[in-house]
Each structure stands twice: as structure tokens, then as C-alpha cells.
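fwd from M.: "can u put these together and see what the complex looks like"

so here's what she sent:
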Amino acid sequence: DTAVSQTPKYLVTQMGNDKSIKCEQNLGHDTMYWYKQDSKKFLKIMFSYNNKELIINETVPNRFSPKSPDKAHLNLHINSLELGDSAVYFCASSQSIRGARYGYTFGSGTRLTVV
Amino acid sequence: DQQVKQNSPSLSVQEGRISILNCDYTNSMFDYFLWYKKYPAEGPTFLISISSIKDKNEDGRFTVFLNKSAKHLSLHIVPSQPGDSAVYFCAASQGGGKLIFGQGTELSVKP
């Protein structure tokens, strides 16, 4: 039973489209995250939510909007997709904000390709 | 400005020998350091962590060493096995749940 699952695994779409990536965790964790791995392989935080409340919002274009309907779900909606949005997006969770020290649990990633 | 750096993009080691992966950081306020392992097409998997007040933590074949004066940490894998071949990421905790990752080192363990 997958602990952190994200869908879809692959997403190919045209510039200008709007798309969503869904994430669900069944670990009972309070905190969820979105990370982006760019072409240079850096993993950079985009957002974090703790009990549905936005905690971290890095300097991400406002075309990216996270939505947390409950603490087990954190979805990422992207408007007006651009070529530079092509990357692998990882969802993750931790027991709490302080739980990052014990390691996040990551999903397997969504490879987004904008053409 | 990259606060966590892994300067070696790749490392090749013979099976049974020691693998040493290195990581440097610039921010002395980091409170925890972590190592993750990543296979292709999978998410990173947590391996081991160390508090900034410790200098060593061991878990089976994996040991992490922290040198605060040099702002340097390393992951030792002994003995290395072919299944250890993966990309290893160093990460630092800045509080608020945020982890800052290095760019990874690809380890190849040859039989």
C-alpha cells in the first residue's frame, strides 16, 4: 500500500494549458510538501502545508496554486504552463513541521513535460 | 546561492569497499542534516540523519559524520553493495519543515 501517491506519473501538455497533479498520503502525517527537481537535478521546496494551513511558500510564480482539502491531500494546480515548468514534481509528507528531521516520505514523482 | 553543496557528481567504488559521499554547507543555523537515496523513476528515500549537536550517527552499514567547524558532513557506506548504486542527496533542515538539498552524487558500486 503506497504511503505517498501522486498522479499522474507522467504528464505531457502544451504551453498555455492548465494542469493539476494530485497527492495523497495514508501515513497520518500532518505536514505535506511540494518539491521541484529541475534539469540540474536540484530538489527545491515550493510549498508546505501543515494541517491544511500554508506554512511555506517559496518564490514560486502565482501560476502555481496548491490546494489542501484535508491533511491527507495536497494538490498542485498550474495555470498557463510554460516551457520552463518542465521538471519532476515530488510530493512529500512528514509527521509534523518538526518531523522533517526524521525524514520526509516522498512520492515517486510526476514528470511534467511542456511542449 | 546554494547553501548545501555536493561537489562530486559521481563516485565509483568496488563492491565490499567503503563508499564516502561528501557534503558541504554554509549556514551554521541548520539544526539537522539528512541523507537520502534515490533510484531512477522513484522518489528519494530517507537513509539517516544527524543532529547538529552530534558528530556521528550510525545505522547498520551507514554512518554519517558531521564536522561543524568545517561545515562538512560525510556518509560512509561499509561494505558497499551493488544495490547501493543510486543517487545520494544530502539535505539540511532549516526549521519549519523546510529541507535544503544538495545536487546529489551518483554512486556506482561495481561487482
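replying to her w this: Residues 60 and 78 of chain B are 9 Å apart (CA to CA).
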